[in-house]
Amino acid sequence: MPVQVGGLPYFTNNEVSEELSVSRQTLWRWREKGRIPPGVRYRTRQVLFTAEEVAAIRNYANKLVPIEFGGGTRQLGLFGRARSEEGA
């Protein structure tokens, strides 16, 4: 249930994370990196978002990005040396 501040509804960090099925820590990282709106502080502790900010967060959380092949990234590099380096 949104918090009413000045007659306007604001949504808590917990409400947004539950709605989108992401952790509060994920929301915090997205906020820190500027990927989603920062929201506002309420009573010095609670992070609140407007309905418009929640819509922007929802759009970011549900964004689909095409996979690019041959773009120079090596997934195997995440797990150690790439196969091309193993034979060298």
Structural notes for this entry:
By secondary structure, the protein is α+β, with helices and mostly antiparallel strands. The protein has a domain at 3-61: Multidrug-efflux Transporter Regulator, Chain: A, Domain 2, CATH 1.10.1660. Helix content is 36%, strand content 17%. A hairpin with a 2-residue loop joins strand 1 and strand 2 (8-12). The longest helix is centred in the middle third of the chain and has 11 residues, at 51-61. 11% of the residues are buried.
Sequence of strands across the biggest β-sheet:
1-2-4-3
**Share in β-strands:** 15-25%
Task: Kindly identify the CATH topology of the domain at 3-61.
Answer: Multidrug-efflux Transporter Regulator, Chain: A, Domain 2
Look at the structure and give the CATH class of the domain at 3-61: Mainly Alpha
- Identify the overall geometry: elongated
The poorly predicted ranges are none
Largest sheet: 4 strands, antiparallel
Give the helix proportion (percent range). 25-40%
CATH second-level architecture of the domain at 3-61: Orthogonal Bundle
Radius of gyration: 19 Å
Number of strands: 4
